[in-house]
Amino acid sequence: MALNCEEKLTAAIQKDCDNKPKGGMETNVVIYNYDDIDKANTTFSGSNDLIITNLATNASTTGYLLDGIKQVNMASFELIKNEEGFDKYRHLFAGVILAPSAANKKRMDEIASGGRYVIIIEKIWKGASQADAFEILGYDAGLVISSVVWSTKESDGVIKFEIASEEGREEPKMPYNILETNYATTKIAFDGLFATA
Fold first, then answer.
1. What is d(CA 174, CA 182) in angstroms, rounded to the nearest whole number?
2. Can you list the positions of beta strands (E) in the chain?
3. How far apart are CA 144 and CA 111, in angstroms?
């Protein structure tokens, strides 16, 4: 990286005809409390600082499953230009609670109480050797609730919500990929909610 933090392009940006892009994400999502991520022991690839090679979590913590169907959940990021500092990225996750039960409303109330979260997703497009399947939103600054909407007249009465980067506390990078050795190993960690004993 250059002394003034402006990196130079170092390689070609190529298409992959064997792995053509496709939108969407797999149905299930892992929500992790931001404070339960062990950043001191999380490791990154030596060749690409956007790849987490081991997502470490604090002892006796777990992520929490958000069950989905079809393409009801969505993740995105966008560049936020800043004239008085470094440009950053706004990460956003739009989710759906498919059963508006009292128990699920309590979970939503917990999220809406002011905490910070990271969201871990599995994309439908997984790239060569499935190395690009998993991404984490909000790793550096955490995401906060930005909207919760429920109506008996819309969308079969499900609860829709958005968790996003807080204004002024956006992320310094795009969402990180997570690749712990290979797809199979990362998938086991994802299905296990990145829990630690």
1. 21
2. 29-33, 43-44, 51-54, 64-66, 74-80, 88-97, 117-122, 134-137, 144-150, 159-164, 176-178
3. 8
Enumerate residues 6+ apart whose C-beta is below 8 A from 145.
111, 112, 161, 162, 163
**Nearest CA among 43, 90, 42, 95 for reference residue 64:** 95
Using one digit for the tens of pLDDT, what is the confidence trace for 1-51? 444 677 888 888 888 888 888 889 999 999 999 999 999 999 999 999 999
Q: List, for residues 114-167, the tens digit of each pLDDT value.
A: 999 999 999 999 999 999 999 999 999 999 999 999 998 888 899 999 999 999
Which residues have a Cβ under 8 Å from the Cβ of 174 and sit 6 or more positions away? 50, 77, 89
Token pair 């790239």 is found at 127
Coil, strand or helix at 177: strand
The Cα 116–Cα 35 span in angstroms is: 8
- Sheet strand arrangement including 117-122: 43-44, 51-54, 176-178, 134-137, 117-122, 29-33, 64-66
Under 8 Å between Cβ of 52 and 178: yes
The answer to whether residues 28 and 67 touch, using CB atoms and an 8 Å cutoff, is: yes
